Amino acid sequence: MFMQALLITLVAIVATIDYNGPLFMIHRPLVTSAMVGLVLGDLVQGIIIGSVLELTWLGVTGIGGYTPPDTISGAIVGTAFGIMSGQGVTAGIAIAIPIAVATQQLDVLAKTADIYFAKKADADARKGDYSKIGFYHYSSLILIILFKIVPIFLAIMLGGEYVADLFAKIPPIIMQGLNSAGALLPSIGFGMLLNMMLKKKLWVFLLVGFVCSVYGGMSTIGISLVGMIVAYFYDLILNQQLQSANISVTNEEELDL
């Protein structure tokens, strides 16, 4: 168990660095859960849990000073406990969401503590001493990583057996309720995403997807391919209109001259 907890902690480190740096989407639940599943010997279950959590947290993002729920910790711990308990998606979702909300406060605390490094870097910059700015930058990242990985490591090391015993004692009717709740959560994620990005002129594309699914009987992959084709032609037409508008403006300016 120690080696598995160590490898899962390594997954958390990579995901945290990605979230605070290059943003290659390694930190997304679909990827982190799959890596946890690989470590625990059940890649398929890891992908299944990760896909449900990915849909649930589609619209979760940090804007301005807002710190969103910690989806990295939630996905990693939820997937690990879901696989270790043998309950799969049901346990994964039941654990991931409260963990993400609880560790959200640790993110706030870590970023508040990072103000110290920012002030030190500002002070050195005002003096013209730039030699330590890189050190302060990486120190702040290390602090964020520590706030992330310590709870994850302790949870995996100490909580696996307790979680398995806990879920074994839960009555079947409650487990059925958790299953039903888990099936509804992806729709909340889609709703949050649509609320942010859906404009009046884009409703027709949502309707096209609905018609393809309900009346055309198309699979999700088929609808995605149709969406890619429609998006390509939409972008092509939009670019042509912009080019025509630019040419028209240029011609008018030449006539004025």
UniProtKB/TrEMBL annotation:
A Gene Ontology BP annotation from the UniProt entry: phosphoenolpyruvate-dependent sugar phosphotransferase system
Keywords carried by this UniProt record: Cell membrane, Membrane, Phosphotransferase system, Sugar transport, Transmembrane, Transmembrane helix, Transport
UniProt-listed Pfam families: EII-Sor
Transmembrane regions: 30-53, 135-158, 178-198, 205-234
Key word Cell cycle present: no
Statement: the UniProt record of this protein carries the keyword ATP-binding: no
Protein origin, superkingdom: Bacteria
Places the protein is found: Cell membrane
Cellular component terms per the entry's GO annotation: plasma membrane
Membrane topology (UniProt): Multi-pass membrane protein
Protein name per UniProt: PTS mannose/fructose/sorbose/N-acetylgalactosamine transporter subunit IIC
Species, as recorded: Streptococcus suis
Organism ancestry: Bacteria, Bacillati, Bacillota, Bacilli, Lactobacillales
Gene that this sequence comes from: manY
